[in-house]
Amino acid sequence: MRKGFCLLLFSIGFLAIYAQEQTSEEQIPAPRYLLTQKRYTIALQPFQWINYGWRFDFEMRLGEGPGWLQFGPTLYLATRDKDADRSHHFYDGNYDTDYYYYYNFREPFSELRGGGLDVNYKHFLNPKRSLYAAGGLSYTLLNIDYYGGLGKWVDYVEDGLSYHEYRYTIGMFTQSINRLATNFYFGYQVPSRHMFLFDMFVGMSYRYPFMDKSKPAFDRGSFSFGYEGWVMMMGVRFGIGIK
Fold first, then answer.
1. Contact between residue 150 and residue 215 where contact means Cβ atoms under 8 Å apart
2. Is the Cβ–Cβ distance between 181 and 210 less than 8 Å?
3. What local confidence, expressed as pLDDT, does residue 24 receive?
4. Which residues contact 51 (CB under 8 A, 6 or more apart)?
5. What pLDDT does 36 receive?
6. What number of CA atoms fall less than 13 Å from residue 231's CA on the CB side?
7. In this predicted model, what pLDDT tens digit does every residue of 153-182 receive, in sequence order?
8. Cβ distance 98 to 90 under 8 Å?
9. What's the predicted TM-score (pTM) here?
10. How far is CA 154 from CA 92, 165, 167, 169, in A?
11. How far is 59 from 243, CA to CA, in rounded Å?
12. Which residues on adjacent β-strands are paired with residue 67?
């Protein structure tokens, strides 16, 4: 419900901006923007900090047309609790033992490391090159350290005989998540002849993770690192234009 309401507000804002752009297009000649628009941009996405990500975008204009190519590398680094002897949160295999008692939009973890890359095509929809549609693909690799217990069957040989035994270990473990995603979004980039860049966007992304099923999936909600399905994209970008 909350996602739908936010999407509705952004859609209404987007349509209002679009209507204003349509009425003012005749007052500002398009050739001026064709001559003054920068060919390269570098931008930061501060909303990514919510999920412990540092995202930087590099964009390049394709020829003299309205198409741009965007590369967005992201670095993930966070330390929440590295004490392996703590007992206030515990993962038993792939089960979160504190699921009903821990209220947060993301599962707890000890340490997070990883990185990713988004590659998107961006196409401006109006002569002023402010409204745009974009889409592309992304890949993310995350290593999540957590405290818990893990059991598995092991084979060993003793006194010349083969045995099959179930062993349960308690300590720190690492879940590795390889996540693929597709992105579709609309945005508004403030036209400017100067170096400063401001951009806001909204859209949807479908995520599909690959991971060890015997370990916690970290997929409780859309902010979770291992979530599978559609998630809402929303953000702003601050940056500069070059050349």
1. yes
2. no
3. 47
4. 76, 106, 223, 225
5. 54
6. 20
7. 777 777 777 777 778 888 899 999 999 999
8. yes
9. 0.79
10. 18, 5, 7, 12
11. 12
12. 123
Record the tokens describing residue 47, joined without a space: 């909303």
Q: How many residues does the chain have?
A: 243
Which residues, in sequence order, are CB contacts of 69 under 8 Å at separation 6+? 59, 60, 62, 119, 120, 121, 122
Identity of the residue numbered 151:
G
Q: What is the SS3 assignment for 181?
A: strand
In whole angstroms, give the CA distance from residue 170 to residue 145: 13
Structural tokens at position 132? 């745009």
C-alpha span between 243 and 227 (Å, rounded): 40
**Are 45 and 236 a contacting pair, CB within 8 Å?**
yes
How do residues 87-100 score in pLDDT, each as one tens digit?
468 898 888 877 65
The pLDDT tens digits of the residues spanning 102-111 come to 556 788 888 9
CB 200 within 8 A of CB 81: no
Query: For residue 175, what are the β-bridge partners?
Result: 144
d(CA 113, CA 82): 13
Place of tokens 């002569």: 127
Considering only 51-65, 126-140, 160-174, 208-222, which range has the smallest mean pLDDT? 160-174
Cα 120 to Cα 45, 51, 56, 179: the distances in Å are: 15, 20, 13, 16
Strands 196-210 and 95-96: what pairing?
unpaired
- pLDDT value of residue 23: 44
Q: Where are the alpha helices (DSSP H) in the chain?
A: 2-24, 30-36
Q: Which amino acid is at 62?
A: L
